[in-house]
């Protein structure tokens, strides 16, 4: 009791983009290292600057490339990165870092014909995250690539700013609204009027846009749940008069704990709210250094977090510590991918009338999640919001695209967070 705990955000993690010089972080068309052909630099000076950190991997990949007739290791065969990664791990005697993994997975080869001829390759000038060996290949990919080019540009730009300037708004908290205020139609407008005074360079519009995207990643979960509560109400009715709320976050992960301050968005937008209790349930939470219960004071409200021991929701619903929720949320849930959800789905649809909101990366998966939910509950349910694009999904990539999945599967390969939303409740 009375213990003060620091909620640390995620540490900066070096990433690799072939269109980003690792020496000076310049985005553009660079020259490949002649030893390994896996990394590109804007100048000899930057290559020399990076040699100490690149040397070991370069020499190892160079030897492997010698056995490939001197061609790029993944020429015509990007899936070879799996074998190469295993070989590298065995030689260096440790797992690959995220940067090393990126370097092998995001190889600079033609996105269409898979040629690794570096002399012929040119980056897409819009994003510098995709390369083509000929104009024919560029034209063949143009329509599909336009669906992700801007997002890829934002991915590489956001990383460049993070590496150069850090995240200046990581301690941002939303100021209180004087009256009940619904969320604006544009997610960025939740923050943009408040953040300019907090930035060291108020004239850097690109950095401000990047910071806004990063804030949408921090706040997508509470904003999505608040949006669902405005749309569907809660067990107790509308939000207008709510003074106390209990929300269950099912399938919660450690990131929900690390981003706990973002849930003060509720107390900022709901002036009458005095108490918000968030119950985190899932196999990946509990058992950490944090206490099982902790609180934050926000505006006129107390925000309390209850972290249950690792368990399924059905098990928690039968426990003595169960708190009846006003709303249940399963974010980026993956009902269709994990059988561990099966026994809990019926318990998540509450007879009390508490809405259930769930989100997913793809619309088709969100629809299949709904179908699975309907099959796994004994209750009659009403669909309050059919699977649809979530206006409060992250604008900052949760998963940077790996490999060549866009052309292979024709599914967007830049995943945000809470991309699609569905809301149901028991009749």
Description of the molecule:
The structure is a single chain. The chain is of the alpha/beta class and 427 residues long. Helix content is 33%, strand content 14%. The strands form three sheets. An eight-stranded mixed β-sheet has the order 7-8-6-5-9-10-12-11, with helices on both faces. A hairpin with a 2-residue loop joins strand 7 and strand 8. Helix 5 packs across helix 7. The longest helix is centred in the middle third of the chain and has 28 residues. It is globular and about 70 Å long. The two termini are 41 Å apart. The model has no long low-confidence stretch (mean pLDDT 91).
**What share of the residues does DSSP label as strand, in percent?**
5-15%
User: What is the N-to-C succession of helices and strands?
Assistant: EEHHHEEHHHHEHHEEEHEHEHEHE
Tally of strands: 12
The N- to C-terminal Cα distance equals 41 Å
- Quick check: average pLDDT? 91
Radius of gyration: 24 Å
Overall shape: globular
Number of helices: 13
- Low-pLDDT parts are none
As a percent range, the share of helical residues equals: 25-40%
Overall SS class: alpha/beta
Report the biggest beta sheet as strand number plus sense, adding barrel if it closes: 8 strands, mixed
């Amino acid at each position: 009791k009375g213990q003060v705990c620091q909620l640390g955000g995620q540490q900066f993690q070096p990433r690799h983009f072939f269109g980003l010089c690792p020496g000076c972080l310049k985005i553009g068309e660079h020259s490949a290292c002649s030893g390994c052909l896996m990394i590109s630099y804007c100048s000899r000076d930057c290559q020399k600057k990076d040699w100490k950190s690149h040397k070991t991997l370069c020499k190892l990949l160079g030897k492997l490339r010698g056995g490939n007739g001197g061609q790029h290791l993944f020429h015509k065969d990007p899936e070879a990165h799996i074998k190469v990664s295993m070989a590298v791990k065995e030689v260096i005697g440790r797992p690959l870092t995220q940067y090393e993994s990126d370097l092998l997975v995001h190889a600079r080869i033609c996105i269409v014909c898979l040629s690794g001829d570096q002399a012929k390759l040119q980056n897409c000038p819009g994003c510098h995250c995709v390369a083509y060996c000929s104009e024919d290949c560029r034209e063949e990919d143009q329509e599909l690539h336009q669906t992700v080019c801007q997002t890829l540009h934002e991915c590489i730009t956001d990383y460049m700013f993070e590496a150069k300037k850090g995240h200046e708004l990581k301690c941002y908290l939303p100021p209180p609204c004087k009256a009940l205020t619904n969320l604006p139609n544009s997610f960025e407008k939740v923050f943009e009027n408040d953040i300019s005074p907090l930035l060291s360079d108020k004239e850097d519009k690109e950095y401000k846009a990047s910071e806004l995207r990063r804030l949408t990643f921090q706040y997508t979960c509470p904003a999505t749940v608040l949006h669902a509560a405005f749309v569907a109400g809660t067990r107790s009715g509308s939000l207008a008069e709510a003074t106390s709320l209990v929300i269950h976050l099912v399938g919660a992960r450690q990131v929900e704990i690390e981003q706990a301050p973002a849930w003060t968005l509720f107390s900022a937008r709901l002036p009458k709210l005095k108490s918000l209790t968030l119950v985190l349930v899932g196999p990946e939470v509990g058992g950490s250094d944090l206490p099982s219960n902790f609180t934050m004071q926000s505006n006129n409200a107390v925000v309390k977090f209850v972290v249950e021991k690792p368990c399924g929701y059905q098990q928690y619903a039968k426990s003595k510590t169960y708190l009846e929720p006003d709303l249940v949320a399963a974010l980026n849930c993956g009902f269709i991918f994990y059988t561990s959800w099966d026994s809990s789905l019926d318990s998540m649809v509450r007879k009390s009338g508490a809405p259930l909101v769930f989100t997913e990366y793809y619309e088709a998966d969100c629809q299949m999640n709904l179908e699975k939910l309907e099959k796994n509950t004994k209750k009659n349910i009403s669909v309050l919001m059919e699977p649809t694009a979530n206006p409060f999904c992250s604008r900052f990539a949760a998963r940077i695209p790996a490999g060549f999945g866009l052309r292979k599967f024709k599914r967007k390969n830049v995943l945000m967070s809470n991309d699609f939303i569905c809301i149901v409740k028991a009749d």
